[in-house]
UniProtKB/TrEMBL annotation:
GO cellular component: cytoplasm; nucleus; RNA nuclear export complex
Region (Disordered): 990-1011, 1170-1217
Pfam families xref list: Exportin-5
Protein's name in the database: Exportin-5 C-terminal domain-containing protein
SUPFAM superfamilies linked to this entry: ARM repeat (SSF48371)
Sequence ranges of Polar residues compositional bias: 997-1011
Gene3D superfamilies: Leucine-rich Repeat Variant
Highest taxon, organism lineage: Eukaryota
Exportin-5 C-terminal domain ranges (all copies): 343-1168
One of the GO biological process terms: RNA export from nucleus
């Protein structure tokens, strides 16, 4: 027998010689005293031995010799595995039968004294043979397994029993639960065979009497589900205190867990799986309880049970006795948060998820639930879990309760009513921002959070979801019981206000901290009120048919006003608390009390007169003071947007008061602009003003802006880069610091932003805005684009004329932004800003001011352009705009940092989306060509530099942290770029906001605006079709996508794969042969490269599907896919032709990708199943993760360098350059 399918008789001496050499080589490898050179030569010999003709035969001889050491026998098993995995298709029927007999003999000879790694490898060999031949030319496998099973029980032989359990688990997982390429090729046959041997015969006879018989020979009437349940019962009877019985229970539950996702539900019921697994759940062994919980979760997360299946499998879980047992299980062993039992803690999390899954059935069934369901007992158990001190345990149950309250049936069910006061109290207590509490807190909730979540981003995301569930509960209860809820909540808040600093040091300027416990407690209570207000407004919507409010409603709103007035009258010295009070009062005024004109004026007066004392000695207080003043301007703007008609009645008084404030107080320029935009918004949005008077007033505000942009000296200065520096004061740093010149950019940004905010096309305000800015836009744009072009060019060293080479590193350092990166930067964000404030009087502070000037110009220009784009043809209809706009945005975009370019792309995305269909070809073509050319230049270059630097980086923890920060920002930029591609081309485009795209505060308003598609009709050409039809656009786009397949970001790679799979069919036609050929060579090779990179293990099946799609659609028109595959090492012509033949006959996507996973499996000798997922330790430090990535990059670079020597594409490559 030989590895290439041939057979050659050998004498005993011929056999003994190579076996002796293999033993000697293994002795050298495992001998601690062997030299490195000898060990290296021995390792090379053993690798070559795997590919020898007689490798499987030698392997069997070694593995079956019980006198040999375990490592020698294991190597023999590896030799057999090599033959099965890589040469099975070359074996004749007799040869494959011989190998199968060897594996059977080895399985029959398993002993308890054999090491686990030897037994497991024998089981893997059995599974590998089964995946290739069971139900094809091997029909009696079940009979052989049952014989081994019976023999193992009779002897007894626990090792052989465990061997069979491991074989069953691995086989089932490969067929149903994993993306195994070999099982995927025969999935239909293998899955049917599994149904045959696992299901009791009685189930087939009763429920499927007309089922077609299969060729698989099953042994006995029971089926493996019954055998497994019986063994589990016997092990439980033996007692889990016995190590052997405990281990047996765990192995059986592991196999059952693998079966629950696909087994016939009636078979599960007939075998008594739920009853026996439930019994396992009640034993006093956390490890067994964990597996039992996972097993039930696998069953109950299935998508559908019919009525009978539900009654048999799910119904028993809601019975009173069962629920009492489940509650006892949860309470069995309490956890000390200061000395956590990790295994028990993990079990509680899994148990909570199981109960939440059971709760989802209650939501779905509603009134159709059987009468045996004890809903109050189940809700009591769910509340018990939700109130656990660990939020990780609590969150699943809390989410289930919030969903139940929102459902029509359960929200009004008598069963849930007794729990509403408890839920309100629980949600109120847990709306505090725990992420802002110090890590050293002894609060059990904080202790658990520190145990569960390592990084700040994880903590923010998790707690954000948790608070959302709490708010949802409060909102619903307020919607159903507004009169009771508000009385309770407001009394609760009053109690907090009266004892705000109890057990806390009193307020002081010197010891001030932004997130004091007093502030956090108040913020939580105010969050409760805001959630209740949402519920109250929903309740009011239900009363919309009533013209007049009810007496109860009038009384409640009166109580709200009295309570708000009382809160406003209280004196708070903490700027953060003052800020929060103002936000809540404005929320009241714009929601529940929106008809109370006097109350609104009272709040407005309070905001305008808010002038807290300054205290520069404490940076934290100064920062809080600044945030308070910003909130004041934001909230008066909110009032102007919400109630312009009411404010119009007192417009004259407001105008006089604002003039007085500006004249008598030292008001910053930005606050002056904010006050003017407040008055502008009232005039712009009110309905109580004559149109001519309105336009005249608005023109008074806009006229200075027009004049500033039309100033000849400004136009002349912006003609050169040096002139731009002069305009913003950077030619004379000293003068710049003393008195910075006021530019028209900030004022323009403020007024055009309020002009376009929350505008509905076709509304009166929209028409007013269009008329107001129609003439101004052409006047602003020329100099605005020059400002933007120079602001980008400032980062390009080529523009630093006259600067000596020695000063260039200094300028580069000055332009390097300081930023805080969550999860990577040392210290908190507040500490970062505190350190920034401390450097204001240093050279770093000077550099920060220079960066701030450039950033203000750049991002203000972005905001102005986006606002202009919302005015439709008044922006897009400018015939000469597209070319200069593309140049200003992207000519020097490659010189921006990754973070800065992310902001640019976010803004550009909205300009692209808002473009009317009729203007796309003229407007978007130059914009998209420049965008994708520069994105490819920037992103690909940054990734290449990062990988190259990672290979040679040798620094301490600080350097590694800095590199991780850069990598994180680069990933955000990459994700932003691929989302743009997906939005333009992917039919299943990701929704905005799904991926936490990076946003800059200057552009935060962009994320709150919906996309407009007012001009697009169903019969018009889509954006996708427009781009695919344009060679100018698709060429740089598809080149970037090709490079993105190799970028070390599996999330982005996955998106690009979906994009390619959606556009590949578009180029099948002959007139796109150039693009098709590029895909056949470069895209296909990039996919193959990434498929065999360890980093991309999570998207390997997607990469294989892309390869299959290209080969399936393009191979009839081009020989390139076949030729490229043949150029890969170890790929033969026969294998490729067989793969293509089966590919064109296949209709299953899983089967198609399995073909290529099998074909390319041996390219590097590391199969997909052995690569595994990248490990993620819960407490792994950022630096260690970086080191790991660097090591992986080093290991894969050699192959990457070989790949760079790709065939010349000739003219096709030039087309994409």
């Amino acid at each position: 027998m030989n590895g290439n399918g041939g057979a050659a008789p050998q004498s005993a001496n011929q056999t003994a010689q190579p076996l002796h050499q293999i033993k000697q080589a293994l002795d050298i490898v495992y001998n601690a005293h062997s030299s490195n050179e000898d060990r290296k030569q021995a390792g090379a010999f053993l690798e070559n031995a795997k590919n020898e003709k007689e490798a499987p035969f030698h392997g069997y001889k070694l593995a079956s010799d019980l006198a040999l050491e375990a490592q020698v026998r294991h190597f023999g098993l590896l030799l057999i595995e090599q033959g099965i995995r890589y040469f099975w298709s070359d074996y004749s029927e007799d040869e494959s039968k011989v190998v199968r007999e060897w594996v059977l003999n080895l399985a029959q000879g398993v002993r308890t004294s054999d090491p686990a790694f030897v037994r497991n490898k024998i089981a893997q060999l059995w599974v590998e043979v089964a995946k290739r031949s069971w139900a094809s030319d091997w029909f009696d496998m079940d009979e052989l397994l049952v014989k081994l099973w019976d023999n193992a029980i009779q002897e007894p032989n626990p090792a052989q029993r465990d061997l069979i359990l491991f074989m069953l688990e691995t086989l089932v997982d490969d067929i149903f639960n994993r993306e195994d390429p070999i099982a995927g090729l025969r999935n239909a046959v293998l899955s049917k065979a599994c149904f045959d041997v696992f299901t009791p015969a009685s189930v087939f006879a009763k429920y499927y009497p007309h089922r077609t018989e299969t060729s698989v020979s099953r042994c006995g009437e029971e089926g493996w589900l019954v055998r497994l349940v019986r063994l589990l019962n016997e092990a439980l009877d033996a007692g889990v205190n016995s190590p052997e019985a405990n281990a047996c229970c765990q192995r059986v539950l592991t196999v059952l867990k693998a079966c629950m996702g696909w087994s016939i539900p009636r078979a599960v019921a007939a075998a008594g799986v739920v009853e026996m697994v439930g019994r396992s759940l009640m034993v006093e062994s956390t490890s067994i309880q964990m597996l039992a919980t996972d097993c039930l979760s696998a069953l109950y997360t299935r998508t559908y049970f019919d009525e009978e299946e539900f009654e048999q499998l799910v119904g028993p879980m809601y019975q009173t006795q069962t629920l009492q047992l489940l509650q006892n299980i949860f309470n069995w062993k309490p956890i000390n948060p200061h000395d956590i039992d990790d295994e028990r803690y993990l079990f509680l999390k899994r148990f909570s998820e199981l109960i939440a899954t059971l709760g989802s059935f209650l939501e779905e069934k509603g009134e159709e639930l059987p009468s045996s369901v004890d809903a109050p007992a189940f809700l009591s158990l769910t509340y018990l879990i939700a109130s656990h001190e660990s939020f990780a345990v609590s969150i699943s149950a809390l989410n289930m309760l919030s969903r139940a309250l929102r459902s029509d049936y359960w929200g009004n069910s008598p069963a849930i009513q007794p729990f509403i006061p408890q839920l309100l109290e629980l949600s109120t207590a847990r709306l505090i921002r725990y992420e802002s509490m110090i890590d050293e807190s002894h609060d059990p909730c904080v202790v658990y959070l520190n145990e569960d979540l390592d990084t700040v981003p994880e903590r923010h995301a998790f707690l954000g979801n948790y608070r959302r569930f709490c708010s949802s509960i409060v909102e619903y209860i307020a919607r159903k019981r507004p009169f009771d809820v508000f009385a309770y909540i407001m009394n609760n808040v009053d109690a907090i206000l009266d004892s705000l600093y109890d057990s806390q040091p009193p307020f002081s300027f010197d010891g001030y901290k932004k997130n004091s416990l007093a502030y956090l407690r108040l913020d939580a209570k105010f969050s409760v009120i805001e959630a209740a207000l949402k519920g109250y407004m929903r309740w009011c919507e239900g009363l919309a048919a009533q013209q007049d409010p009810t007496p109860e409603q009038q009384q409640l709103e009166h109580n709200m006003e009295v309570w708000c007035t009382t809160v406003l009258s209280r004196k708070f010295e903490d700027p953060m608390i003052k800020r929060r009070v103002i936000q809540l009062m404005v929320t009241f005024s714009t929601t529940a009390l929106d008809k109370n004109h006097d109350f609104m004026l009272k709040i407005l007066e309070h905001i305008l007169l808010t002038r807290p004392p300054e205290y520069q000695s404490n940076p934290a207080y100064s920062e809080a003071h600044k945030e308070l003043m910003n909130i004041c301007t934001t909230e008066i703007q909110r009032l102007a947007m919400k109630m312009p008609d009411n404010l119009m009645h007192v417009y004259g008084q407001l105008e006089s008061k604002i003039k007085e404030i500006v004249a008598t107080e030292n008001v910053d320029e930005r606050y002056k602009i904010a006050f003017h935009t407040f008055l502008f918004t009232i005039t712009h949005r009110t309905r109580n003003l004559d149109p001519q008077v309105r336009m005249a007033r608005l023109e008074e505000y806009i006229m200075p802006i027009k004049q500033a942009w039309s100033e000849p000296t400004l136009t002349s200065a912006l003609q050169t880069f040096q002139g731009f520096c002069n305009v913003i004061g950077l030619d004379s740093v000293q003068e710049y610091l003393i008195s910075r010149q006021v530019l028209p950019i900030r004022m323009t940004k403020a007024f055009i932003a309020v002009s376009t905010e929350k505008l509905k096309p076709g509304s009166t305000a929209y028409q007013v805005t269009c008329n107001l800015w129609h003439d101004a836009i052409p006047m602003i744009l020329p100099n605005l684009l020059k400002f933007l072009s120079h602001a980008h060019g400032f980062h390009n060293p080529q523009n630093w004329q006259g600067l000596s080479p020695g000063l260039r590193p200094v300028i580069k350092k000055i332009l390097t932004d300081r930023f805080w990166q969550a999860g990577i930067s040392t210290g908190s964000r507040d500490e970062f800003y505190e350190n920034v404030n401390k450097t204001k009087s240093t050279m770093e502070g000077l550099a920060s001011s220079i960066r701030g000037a450039i950033r203000m110009v750049r991002e203000s220009c972005y905001s102005i352009l986006w606002c202009m784009s919302r005015l439709d043809i008044h922006f897009y209809g400018l015939v000469e705009l597209p070319g200069p706009l593309a140049m200003s945005l992207f000519a020097d975009a490659h010189a921006l940092s990754s973070h800065q370019m992310s902001i640019l792309l976010n803004m550009t995305r909205y300009i692209i989306d808002d473009c009317p269909v009729a203007y796309r070809e003229h407007f978007l073509t130059p914009l998209l060509v420049s965008l994708f050319s520069q994105v490819d230049h920037k992103v690909s270059g940054e990734w290449n530099e990062l990988i190259e630097r990672g290979q040679i980086a040798q620094g301490g923890e600080e350097q590694l942290a800095e590199e991780m920060k850069e990598e994180s920002i680069l990933r955000q930029l990459t994700y932003t770029a691929v989302l743009i591609v997906a939005g333009l081309l992917d039919p299943q485009r990701p929704k905005d906001g799904e991926g936490n795209m990076p946003q800059n505060p200057q552009l935060s308003q962009l994320s709150n605006q919906g996309e407009q598609s007012q001009h697009v009709q169903s019969t018009e050409i889509t954006m996708r079709d427009f781009i695919l039809s344009s060679d100018k656009i698709i060429e740089p786009l598809i080149l970037f996508c090709t490079h993105a397949l190799r970028m070390r970001d599996s999330r982005c790679c996955g998106i690009i794969i979906r994009v390619f799979r959606s556009i590949v069919p578009e180029f099948v036609q002959a007139n796109r042969a150039d693009i098709r050929e590029f895909i056949c060579r470069e895209v296909l090779m990039a996919a193959v490269d990434s498929l065999h990179e360890d980093y991309f293990v999570d998207v390997q099946k997607d990469l294989a599907q892309l390869i299959a799609t290209i080969c399936l659609l393009y191979s009839p028109f081009s020989p390139t896919p076949r030729g490229l595959l043949l150029s890969l090492p170890g790929i033969t012509e026969f294998k490729v032709d067989q793969c293509f033949k089966r590919l064109h006959a296949s209709t299953s996507t899983r089967h198609q990708r399995a073909l290529f996973l099998e074909l390319l499996d041996g390219l590097r000798g590391i199969p997909m199943s052995e690569k595994g997922r990248l490990p993620r330790a819960s407490k792994q430090r950022a630096a260690a993760e970086k080191e790991k990535r660097i090591l992986q990059q080093q290991q894969s670079q050699k192959y990457a360098e070989e790949r760079q020597k790709s065939p010349d594409l000739g003219g096709v490559a030039d087309m994409f350059s």
